[in-house]
Records
---
Amino acid sequence: MRRTLFESLTRGPLTEPPPAPDQAALAELARSVDRAARTRLGRSLSIREVDAGSCNGCELEIHALNNAFYDLERFGLHFVASPRHADVLLVTGPVTSNMREALLRTYTATPDPKWVVAVGACAADGGLFARSYAVTGGVKDVIPVDLHIRGCPPSPTDLLKGLLALLQAASRRG
Amino acid sequence: MNPTRTVVTEETWRQATARLAAGNATLLGLWGDAPDVHMALIDERSGDMTLLTYVCSNGKYPSVGAKHPAALRLERAIRDLHKLDAEGSPDARPWLDHGTWKGGAPASYQFLPAEGEGLHQIPVGPVHAGIIEPGHFRFTANGEHVVRLEQRLGYVHKGIERLMNGRTLAEGAKLAGRTSGDSTVAYAFAFAQAAEAALKIAAPPRATHLRALMAELERMANHFGDVGAICNDASFTLMHAQTGILRERTLRAAQACFGHRLMMDCIVPGGVARDIAPAGEASVRALLVEARKIFPRLVELYDNTASLQDRTVTTGIVRGDYVRQFGAGGYVGRASGRAFDARRSPGYAPYRDLEFEVPVLDAGDVNARVWIRIREVEQSISLIEQLLDRLPQGETIVPLECDGRDCEGMALVEAFRGDVLVWLRLDGEGRIARCHLRDASWFQWPLLEAAIEDNIVADFPLCNKSFNCSYSGHDL
């Protein structure tokens, strides 16, 4: 263990410089983020992830945000275990009919002000699963969405760009 | 591989069920194709596969699950999706159908009773605390000890099999690759093999080698991630951070080779969608050097940390007779003495020409499942090296030609968590008439219920992560 720890100290960090926030995401957020909410929250957001029927590909890349290369927590963003502690719901999947109720309840349990980020192609419009008897077809059809991060799955860098844009919008003093 | 499908009488169907119940054959799959029900079996000693069809009359067929519990959930799914009833089944409750689809079953659901003094229930999910897939766990506990766990799954049912109907093979391959994102390579691999078996064509040698390269990168990435995640569930975060680096490096090598971190849509029927990029080989070789340097150190760390061993050794034991009865594959089966690996038997290209070992242990606890994964990482490193050294030149894809007749194909591919079965029926134009995808999780989830019995509630995350069953792959 000592060797591993020591090497971590001497090697220098693996963490990479942050990507610039996504401009398109900033424009989408400018329309949706309430000024009062921005001033109240400051530069820190708690995220609750909700899988609403994804294939688990998006979850793998969301997990990667916590690894040494992307180190999400350096931006004041961190994942929490309960919607009651969350400012942001990060929702993946085409919202299966079987998860619709659970997603609604999770949204209701999240205190205001709150944002919803729909992650991945399925969450945008159902993706490849659109028009199935068993899916709703997009997060925005169930709860209001403030930001879409597209990709199948979006890479951790894409996710980071979107979340940084959200952070910037949330912390810009009105 | 393409076993002949035989339409059987009720008597032969019952004999096959008896063979399963007696342990003389292992159930590979049971699925609906109204008005038919198909059953796939394998003789593990010879590797021979049998495919049987029972033609239902009045929407009924003799229950397999009544004699062989591994079939119970499959039968409940068949009723939900195809309206075919298993006559004589002891469990008539719906499974994937939660009553939310048009014309679905009523929403009330009865969990099995657990009664006794001092028992209490803990309902968990479908939305869990971590970044994981949704499912419901109903624990009945006596103080800290779990006396019964009952799962309720189906929350991520997307209707994949019905979406397949009428699609082209190219569209079907994309859907198959999104059955379980962590096994996208394995699913695309199995789907492509089933399509090729149906069309009686073979992918060129360079393509099969590249497929195996992708499959081993996927296996390694998942094992790295999960070994760390299991330790993280015992609050040993250092391991999680370190294996997270190895996982990220693996995904970056995959990106450098095939242009996608998870290698989605890279395997297609007929071959591979893209050849390895010119710089790809060097990035994979660099990954192997790094993995050979760092991973043994982490293994040593795992083995020498008593507080961690205290959590994993003797926790969540799965009995050997259960894994054989359920035909549980992957590290769940191999950590409890079942030496089954689809790469070895029935086997498929290019693994027949490669050297590798199938590690097997008998302890059946969380620790044994961790060790199987460690050993498999070592095997994957060796396999990737062999694949790069022996990568044949030539074509990477052959055209798909359909002779205008209906055809069928089946494939069994070893994903990181166990064998994936794909069965495919094509119409005369080469479009999908029926596609069935069976994840390894179908035969592993029920054993998790048994593994947690008499363990403390706090050890459930460890047990669960050491199985890491797929919700999406199971729910379809």
---
Amino acid sequence: MKLQEYTSSRHNFEECMKCTVCTAYCPVMQVNPLYPGPKQAGPDGERLRLKDPYFFNYALKYCMNCKRCEVACPSGVRIADLIQSARIRYDHTKPKLRDQILASTDLMGSLARPFAPIVNGVTGLKLTRGVLDATLKIDHRRTFPRYSGRSFEAWLRRREKEQSAFTEQVAYFHGCYVNYNYPKLGKDLVKVLNALGVGVKLLDHEKCCGIALITNGMSKKATSQAIHNVEALRKAVSAGLKVLTSSSTCALTLRDEYPELLGVDNADVRDSVMLATRYIFERLEKGATLRFKPDYHRKVAYHTPCHLERMGWGVFSEKLLRSIPGLEFTSLDSACCGIAGTYGFKKENYEASQAIGEPLFEQIRSVDPEVVACDCETCKWQIEMSTGYTVENPISLLADALADE
Amino acid sequence: MNPREFDVIIIGGGITGAGMQRDCAMRGLKTLLIERSDIATGATGRNHGLLHSGARYAVNDPESAAECIKENRILRRIAAHCIDETDGLFITLPEDDLGYQRTFVEACQKAGIDAEVIDPDQARRLEPAVNPALIGAVRVPDGSVDPFRLCAANMLDAKLHGGQVRLHTEVTAILRKGDTVEGVQVRNRVTGEEEIFSAPVVVNACGIWGQHIAELAGVKVSMFPAKGSLLVFAHRVNNMVINRCRKPSNADILVPGDTVCVIGTTSTRIPFEECDDVAVTPDEVTLLITEGSLLAPSLSSTRILRAYAGVRPLVSADDDPSGRNISRGIVCLDHETRDGIKGFVTITGGKLMTYRLMAELATDLVCRKLGVDKACETAETPLPGSEERSYEQVAQKIWETPSTAQKAAASRLGTRASRISTGDSREQALICECEEVSAGEVVDAIERMDASTLTDLRRRTRIGMGTCQGAFCACRAASLLAGSPGGTARERADLANFLQERWKGNFPIGWGETLREAEYTQWVYKHVLGL
């Protein structure tokens, strides 16, 4: 008798055993009754959508794409991918102006950067936020990331010669946040890598990874940016370079969202793209050393971003932080902060977003650290806004703890 | 008027019996339908669910082909909510004779079937799942039909016209006075209660089991039981019916039906005694997967949900060992002229596709016997639920922004979906998550469509037909059934029986995800719930 040797299905949806553990783990399910939940929206809904796209449910927009369902799934179903793919395939409504603005992190960054002090002042005003709320439905309670006057790219370009002097090199996918809002994180990474004897290169004109475009219904643009970025990654990888990111979501997008959601093949470069903390950890494991300040002391609570959990790499950031002498480390419980990139900026999601994050905020308050560590910029905005605690990337904490040369 | 007296008693709750009861009831007759199990338990519910264009029979059985295309057009009009107008392809593979295509198309045209030769490239675009190696393709107006829904709708309409239905009731004797049939003796298989009903005409519409009923009446009808096995895949691979353009053979039709697709069939003659307990053999599974993969290569790696087999109600003609060449034509026997037994009619042969025509012919005969002169209206009057053609419109009319479950309800119930929109929030709770069946739909089936067991509910609502095969819906639906007479003790037995029946269909293809799923179901019911 002939048995089937294996079976396959789109994003493994047929592997689903209907156990419903994904639904129990979904942060949105717990606060928003309009959301059908990952099982219904994912593998269950897929069978109906295959029958007729008419069965597509617009409530799928409430999925934050946090991927916690995928972490929970014992059967390896790519549930969040199924949901986001369905949105790409079947939701043909034109993205609202607001969503276009929120998704265009690259464009907004280039426009705002030259006028950073003015933009920062204006977006900080209550009046502006009230107007944005009324006109664009961007929630007035949300604080905006500040823009930097000088881009990270310009900063690193001026140091090209000095960086290429190192015998070893890596390429750095800095992402929009480091480039336009917070170049200090990029500079911190350069400092740490240089201390390990590694020089840092830019990619050949990186573009925004595109995650915000994907989740805001602009997958066409995301795809063209993905094709461009994979080409840039290919150039670096074929020159023998690893490509590092300091943002967990950029890493996940470049590695997994490109092939799974956009159909952009990155098989030849995927394994060379990784979060900087993993790269640094592995170098230290292989015998490299860093010199730390002797009198350093900091109380740090570490929050693992959902996308980092999905990649299974939270352990690298945690181990790095624990290796810093004088760092008092607390690991926060696995939880979603609730912002999910641009999701929490939207007026209709604000309440849910804050409700999802509340257990995390509560734990931070009770731990009362000097600083919260986290590898994701949007978690940083959310936690800073909601708790008042400062949030730093583990890379920055590492740079700060290094002994001065 | 005596409540035990009818104008006509119809035995058999398959599509023929249900269609016949509807026709008789619409012509003003007082009808009773008796079924020993549930609706559509025989061949009606054990086939592809293919809305034949007739093309498959065009070359070998032109008469059936012409009937099929005529009924195909009628069913699109009167049974919209039971039908998916997918169209179909007849593909020629490199190992097939492309010359047959011309014979095939000519035969189709002769039978009145629109058969259009299309470019293989166009076929690949229309149906991306089709074997890309195809060298020829013909497009025909095939579709898919839900036989359970069609059967239930006919029975419901018969009831709306005053018809009475007795399910789970077995005919133990046909009562005769001399050479005249006067009624039937029946036994309720649940309660054991025996009753007698009388009518001047008794109709045998029992498909393959008609041989037995005929014996009870003292006449001989020889059936030719030909088993056909099929596999259900867990999701739709194709959205058009795919057939092989060659002489009809094994496993050469792949039909998309609701959320699944079905490959079949095989054809093997079996002894009459085995009709009640047919099983799918390992060889048949191998054959179905191998041949099916030639129609759509992805089938070889698509999760299989179930295997099932049915018995074709063919009427013995010659010594054809496979039964492939027996006409699918309608056999309507007036036993008065044939055997000298008055008041007894057998309607058999035919197919799901031609049930309405079979019912019309048999009802005409019954009416002649009763002296009733009323024309048949079943070809024009839509079945309850089919008053609107598209389920999108149905859903939009009932709900402002329909949920997925409400859309699914509209696709299953048609215009009758308005019945489950009572405004009660409990009605929206999902009983079956795989197929999105709400509590409102289950209650409707219990209250208005004579469902008294979980298996009955499955046929009327699709609960338990999805990927989890009853793991989640069975206990929820059981809680709704437990409210009816018999209560929890009976429901406990029903639940065990239902899950056992689900496993029966999983067993022949018990590997991979389907085996894991079955294991999981067993953990839940046996080890957690203690069933």
